[in-house]
Amino acid sequence: MPKTKVFAVEPSLSPVISGGSRVLILYRVLGGIYPPILNTGILDGIITVEKMKHMSYTRRMVKEEGIFVGISTQGILAAIAKNCLK
Length: 86
Prior knowledge:
Elements: E1 7-11, E2 45-49, H1 51-65, H2 71-84
Helix pairs in contact: 1-2
């Protein structure tokens, strides 16, 4: 039976969940904000993604799949590619 794993995804320029500093990030990438109820103790890991990789997934999803995605989905797709498609 597979075990579910839970990962946080955050921008490498503002890695607050993993202990870094909050930095204002421009160009439609959110970062530095997480809810106070986030229990980081249950996370299996934290994945940081670079801004340009993050944004490239919007163009790719529209071009290849015809699906418009938002900021969170961009980050998740970049994290999947970074860690699963090696």
